[in-house]
Amino acid sequence: EKLIDTADPCAVVASTKILASFSEGFKKDRMFFELDRNGKLAELVTGSPEKVVAHTTDPDTDVMLILFSSGTTGKMKGAKLSYHSIIRGLEVDCKICDLANRPIGTTSFFYVLPINHIAGFMSVTGAFFCGTELKFLEEITPLRYLEGLKKYQPTHFLTVPAVYDVMEQKAFETIRQKGRIVNWAIRSLFNFSGFMREKTGRTVGKKIFKKIYSQFLGNNIECVVTGASPCKDSTARFFVNMGLQWANYYASTETCIPVCAIWASDKDKYGYSGYTNAIDFVEIRIGDVDSEGIGEIQVKTDIVMNGYFRDPEATAAAFDGEWFRTGDRGYIDNENKLHIVGRIKESIVLRTGKKVSAHDVDEYYQNATDRAYTLACCGIPTDDGCEEIHIFIEKKDLSEQRQDEIKKEIMSLSANAASMYHIADVHFIDTIPLTSVRKIKRFELRKMITDAPKVPVKIECNDIEEKSEDSLCSMIRKYKPEAEITSGSRLVEDIGLDPIALFNIKCDIESRYNLD
User: Fold this and answer.
1) For a pLDDT cut of 90, what percent of the chain falls above it?
2) What pTM does this model have?
3) What is the CATH number of domain 347-450?
4) Which phi and psi angles does 285 have, rounded to 5°?
5) Digit-coded pLDDT (tens) for 442-464
6) What CATH architecture does domain 83-271 belong to?
7) Geometric angle at alpha carbon 320, from 319 and 321, rounded to 5°
């Protein structure tokens, strides 16, 4: 309802289930169409055309769609993308993931991402654009990911890095269970395959490891594609060494897709986000460069958005002249490779005047504790206008005594760390708030401290008292903080979890209860 109020559409086309979730008062004076009703593609079920079908007060005939996203900063903004942006972006997309100039009928794409995400929208339209067979599941759940991949046997697959991380982890767990000799032999072949690909370009791993990757990607897979959030080099190396093509996008809703990317045809796959000169109509520069050569990544291209919908202030703030301000910090090396360091809004300004990436702090303490805890940090403003680092840890089933022990451990690590990693305090909370693509909502962490004595919202699970079910409620709250959950709540229909959130919750359950 918030989205519809903000977007102010003249009509809404929705499924029966979604329409049923709106109150009658909300539907009043709005025109709603129900999909697949009475044998029609869509049928008018409420509202009067005479009342609502009027030209918008701010028409923009160039705009093809408006994608709304709350992102990690909390405010809902609608990026207006033009026909020109979409078509030109698709032309490059098809080349990046090796779909261009393929004979019709020789490629197939298994689709799982939400259509309201720029990656989801572009992957669907890209399949049509390239003449690629597009395959769906009517209902996408975590358990049906592998089912769909095995059934449809796609040549191309796109999802967020978290899914590929799990695939890598599961594969190596299975290999370890085969015993030391088999484990050593496979890892040796794995390293040999990577060496051959790096030196000669030959994908010997595709034959050697087909029995492994076909178990979770199918027999016909050629190219795996990712984006939306940072991807570990180890994950990319896993798929590349198995002989598969690997493409990794750097983009945003505002810049359409792409800005920069690791192309499927690129020989070098690790440690950077793409060549800045690879796309002729995209210019990339680094603005507000600091003493270390790191600054804001800014983009000038004719595929950038036409501004934010009815938000001139946000639009003005998003640009420096013709250059779109991505909000990401990074640098360009001597080989024109783009390196992303972190988010500007996630950069923590220390008393020394130096900036440290929140992501780097997370990684430092995750590695120092052998990733024993789910943690995240953020900068908390101080009276002198700087920030201090606070760490938040999911308390899960930790006793108060254990929490005290962990806090002492973290503070001890802090005392012996470089100054940029010094911690001011450690907090234990129910869940680390995440977006559906597993980006940390650090602004929510910050609010937990700056808005004190306010405490994190606790979901009341009316009839649920068992510890395991309370734990599940906490997992759901990561992705739907405002959800009202009861024992009868359905994850998709009532709570509104999308496929990526469902997959992430599945991973959380496996991790919490040591399940497979």
Assistant:
1) 42
2) 0.72
3) 3.30.300.30
4) -135, 165
5) 888 988 998 876 444 344 444 44
6) 3-Layer(aba) Sandwich (3.40)
7) 100
